[in-house]
Specification:
6-stranded mixed β-barrel; 2 domains; two-stranded antiparallel sheet; 167 residues; alpha+beta; Cathepsin D, subunit A, domain 1; single chain; 31% strand
């Protein structure tokens, strides 16, 4: 796929970029099949947000909002403080984050932490940059596309399920 020079430079990929076509990507993707047991414990119809629990840096973290529309992973300050991570470990950030409402939030920084999803025997851990930002009354973490993509995750808000390949 040929990319114009200006766009290529902006994306940091140089003159030429080879990528899988959408058809090739789909053929290698995890098939998402729904079974009646996938809806166990889910009252339908619903339009509930998808909230999970996971392990971040060896801490059990509840109330993690899975957001396929977000381009960042955010660990809210209260959860960060409970993990007793030294703020000096945060890498400074020059960019702001913007909430869905459009309000600007200046994160305290970002840090690479291990994020573990799943249950034995399908337990996977990947290191992810988490932005430390603001306070949230209800959530401890906001999991966006970067983390979901690295796991190869398929999200179904209807089934309230997150599936990823068995490696």
């Amino acid at each position: 796929m040929e990319i114009p020079t200006e766009l290529g430079k902006l994306m940091g990929i140089g003159w030429r970029h080879t990528a899988l076509t959408p058809i090739e990507v789909r053929s290698r993707a995890l098939p998402f099949t729904s079974r009646p047991q996938d809806l166990e414990g889910v009252t339908t119809p619903h339009d509930d947000a998808f909230v999970i629990r996971a392990t971040i840096a060896n801490y059990d973290v509840a109330r993690i909002f899975v957001d396929t529309g977000s381009s960042v992973n955010v660990l809210y300050k209260d959860a960060f403080d409970r993990m007793q991570i030294d703020q000096e470990e945060l890498q400074p950030m020059a960019t702001s984050l913007f909430r869905f409402s459009g309000h600007e939030v200046q994160p305290l920084g970002q840090i690479q932490l291990p994020l573990s999803l799943g249950e034995e025997p399908l337990w996977r851990t990947h290191k992810h940059p988490l932005h430390n930002g603001g306070r949230s009354v209800r959530l401890q973490c906001h999991l966006g596309r970067p983390a979901l993509s690295s796991f190869g995750a398929v999200v179904s808000t209807f089934h309230q399920k997150l599936k990823f390949p068995d490696l």
